[in-house]
Amino acid sequence: MNEMLNTLGKNARNAEVLVRNLSANEKNEVLLKVAEALTENADTLTAANALDVENGRKNNMPEALVDRLLLTGDRIQGMAEGLRQVAALEDPVGEVLGMKKRPNGLMIGQKRVPLGVIGIIYEARPNVTADAFALCFKTGNVVILKGGSDAIHSNEAIVKCIREVLQEQGITEDAIQLITDTSRETTAEFMKMNQYVDVLIPRGGRGLIKAVVENSTIPVIETGTGNCHTYVDETADLQMAADIIMNAKTQRVGVCNACESVLVHEKVKDEFLPVLARRLQEKRVEIRADEAACELIPGAVQATEEDWGREYLDYILSLKVVSSVEEAISHINQYNTGHSEAIITNNYEHAQKFLDQVDAAAVYVNASTRFTDGFEFGFGAEIGISTQKLHARGPMGLLALTTTKYIIYGNGQIRP
Amino acid sequence: MNEMLNTLGKNARNAEVLVRNLSANEKNEVLLKVAEALTENADTLTAANALDVENGRKNNMPEALVDRLLLTGDRIQGMAEGLRQVAALEDPVGEVLGMKKRPNGLMIGQKRVPLGVIGIIYEARPNVTADAFALCFKTGNVVILKGGSDAIHSNEAIVKCIREVLQEQGITEDAIQLITDTSRETTAEFMKMNQYVDVLIPRGGRGLIKAVVENSTIPVIETGTGNCHTYVDETADLQMAADIIMNAKTQRVGVCNACESVLVHEKVKDEFLPVLARRLQEKRVEIRADEAACELIPGAVQATEEDWGREYLDYILSLKVVSSVEEAISHINQYNTGHSEAIITNNYEHAQKFLDQVDAAAVYVNASTRFTDGFEFGFGAEIGISTQKLHARGPMGLLALTTTKYIIYGNGQIRP
Questions:
Q1: What are the Aldehyde dehydrogenase domain coordinates in residue numbering (chains A, B) (predicted)?
Q2: Which of A54, B8, B148, B373 could form a disulfide with B123 if both were Cys (CB 3.0 to 4.6 A apart)?
Q3: Alpha-carbon span B383 to B86, nearest angstrom
Q4: CA distances from residue B346 to B232, B271, B274, B287, B360 in whole angstroms, order as listed
């Protein structure tokens, strides 16, 4: 292994032992001091960021990406505020779950403990640097960050700031480490450091996540893309259905919990589709529909097979007429990405069937899929939304960054 | 992808939808009928097994492996009894955990659901075939089995028997499928079928598990090797310490929760080691000790650095003298495999420190590590013992074969 990565891994394991056993008070104090330090060093951070932005522009980075890269005074305040919010959350580490006494007198319980060393691979978004540190550190984990090369100066400045606070507080500065060599080879090696890293979390677009899932030998928590559906049942309150679809599609289009596809029961298509289409078209949403729907929607484009599987992240919606709740469920289970799905209905049996049979991280009756979010679910934080089934599914808060170990109190028991 | 695997994957996904929604009663009836069918077809099964055993002997399979491969009438009764036990367990699927009302009126809860399609890769142990089916089916999962080529006839006969029952009961027979092409290439492809398989569980020795972890792109639950330690503190009840070590080392040597290494506090070494050594040597346990311990144990072999990391699975024990509980903890955290670790002590602070700071799936005070087992922990079943930190850690019962999805009841909520 690359000497640099080897050293980094050893440092992380050494730090792990120290960070794992910090009290909530000690961890919160660090988070509050880091919030202060980021604000105090705002000029240094924006200066470092200016280099990244300048390089980005030089390399013709699209303006949307430049905007995500940019650090301003306000955004640095936002990062600091995020750290304070995490400090205010309850520390889940140390709780003992379900301790029971076995017939032989052994007391067996599950204690919530940190995962250990968490690797985070992300793109050119410097705010993720502080955010990922806050969530990992709050849960007693050590973090190794591998950010996008386009944000390298910004990330170095933020990490330096955090490490200085850690040192001042007498806590190992290796609680956070940044991989500054952003070459493909180093990233590939990083994803195979099972010896030093317990979990890898990719945060970013589809391509990044796919690359990590395919190449990592370290267990991955896959945060995911969302081809989210809303199904309008024959018994739906059509006003409610239109309001929910408008919200789920247009309130924010570039997010994973936005609605990408609408299914409508054939019995309500004549009444519903023209109304819905008018409202969507007012917001300049392009509609890609099947034949039955096209007939009712002037200006709709004929959908292709490929459209049913697309996550547009744009002002585009696919739309299909179905003849039953069963057909809706089966279409969704075929094309969805396991993220968020909704039914709009007043039929009890259809609601229960949809909740039971749709295979996704979050399944809604009569609400917008946009609620799939750690803050909206009441976790007070979010490290991402898992679309995999192992370990965590759906919005992940602090709990997703912990594991458990069994603790067993005995008085001399041996196995017969 | 290999055409056979592709078909198999599609069949599994089609079956998934049906199996996921079976009631506990329907599933239990299948398990009881399979138990009956295995007993009724005992002659067919032993005849198929005889071919495997004959081939094994022809290929000079070691007798210990032949014994694991062998099916007898009694062993078939044992398999059937295992199925009946699983039928008697409570079905965890469908439980809704922690439903809460959010300020906006949304009701959000977590529903326990099957994982989906589970792949199991194992060695030439035909009993795993029925056992893995029982646990997966009970939790509403579809299973694809890839057993060792040495047991192919046995596995085919068992799977045929199960599929016949499934068909008779009007349930898709693809709830269980066996990969009969046991070539390396097919196995390698199977481990990359993310599209069709949700989780892969290797069951077998270190080499098999390592190969799956390194080559699978499907999320893996790593079941593991155990380099388990017992630390005898200066305040230990030495009689209890010796009894526990004898149990953990010699009650069954070839298992992952057996004790492989003993650490003894220097203050009790003179009194304890000669007594312990005598008892171990009576049971013909070879002792590989550090210098301090060797001085007190006639016949002990000098341990090498390599010994501290070994899982012997044999009548061999490594032994080291330490000067504090901290040194014991640090030695264990350096060399253990994250399985099971025990301290024998009467000191409150040392017990708490050991429980807090030792990083393993199960940490004991004053008990034998041999209790790390799904049955001993009261789960009524065991699919393996996880030594990874994601999803499940320690003995895995039925719960480890489930995941959750969020179900959300609304009445028209949209996101502001």
A1: 10-290, 316-378
A2: B148
A3: 11
A4: 10, 17, 21, 26, 21
Asked if B227 contacts B338 with a C-beta cutoff of 8 angstroms, the reply is no
CATH number at residue B248: 3.40.309.10
Per the CB < 8 Å rule, is A199 touching B389?
yes
Q: Which residues of chain B have pLDDT under 70?
A: none
Query: Does one domain contain both B45 and B183?
Result: yes
Does A235 lie in the same domain as A206? no
CA distance A190 to B391: 22
CA of A217, closest CA in chain B: separation in Å?
Answer: 6
The mean pLDDT value of chain A amounts to 95
DSSP B173: G
Of the partner residues A194, A246, A403, the one whose CB lies closest to the CB of residue B393? A403
Token couple for B367: 């008990």
Q: How far is CA B205 from CA B123, B212, B225, in A?
A: 8, 11, 8
Contacts of A361 in chain B (CB under 8 A): 405-406
Q: Are A272 and A232 in contact (CB under 8 A)?
A: yes
Same domain? A325 vs A300 = yes
Give the phi and the psi of residue B375 in degrees, each rounded to 5. Answer: -70, -45
Partner-chain contact A390 B403, CB within 8 Å = yes
Alpha-carbon distance of B377 to A405, in angstroms, equals 13
The one-letter amino acid code at A246 reads: M
CA distance A82 to chain B (A): 21
Question: pLDDT band at A2, cuts 50/70/90?
Answer: confident
Do A325 and A353 touch, CB atoms closer than 8 A?
yes
Query: CA distances (Å), A380 to each of A90, A91, A397, B44, in order?
Result: 10, 12, 7, 59
CA B167 and chain centroid, separation:
30
* Cβ-proximal residues to A16 (8 Å cutoff; 6+ apart), any chain: A114, A116, A117, A141, A142
Residues of A in contact with B400 (CB under 8 A): none
Task: Give CA–CA dist A361/A378, Å, rounded.
Answer: 16
From A4's Cα to the closest Cα of chain B, the distance in A is: 21
- Cα separation, B204 vs B339, in Å, equals 16
Taking the CA atoms of chain B, what radius of gyration do you get in angstroms? 24
B244 contact residues in A (CB cutoff 8 A): 412, 414
A143: which residues sit within 8 A by CB, 6+ positions away? A117, A118, A119, A120, A132, A133, A136, A137, A175, A176, A177
Same domain, B367 and B404: no
Model pTM?
A: 0.92
How far apart are the C-alpha atoms of B189 and B1, rounded to whole Å? 7
What mean pLDDT do residues A144-158 have? 96
Q: What percent of chain A has pLDDT above 70?
A: 100
Q: Are residues B172 and B296 in the same domain?
A: no
Element of type H or E holding B118? strand B117-122
Q: Is the pLDDT of residue A366 over 90?
A: yes
Cβ-Cβ contacts under 8 Å between A and B: the total is: 197
Among residues B407, B368, B372, B388, the alpha carbon closest in space to that of B248 is found at B368
Nearest by Cα to B151 from B176, B186, B174, B182 = B182
Put simply, the answer to whether A378 touches B106 (Cβ < 8 Å) is: no
**The domain containing residue B207 runs over which residues?**
3-222+394-409
- Interface pTM, i.e. ipTM: 0.93
Distance from CA of A177 to the nearest CA of B (A): 21
Q: In sequence order, which residues have a C-beta less than 8 Å from that of residue A20 and are 6 or more positions away?
A: A113, A114, A116, A140, A141, B357, B359
How many domains would you assign to chain A?
A: 2
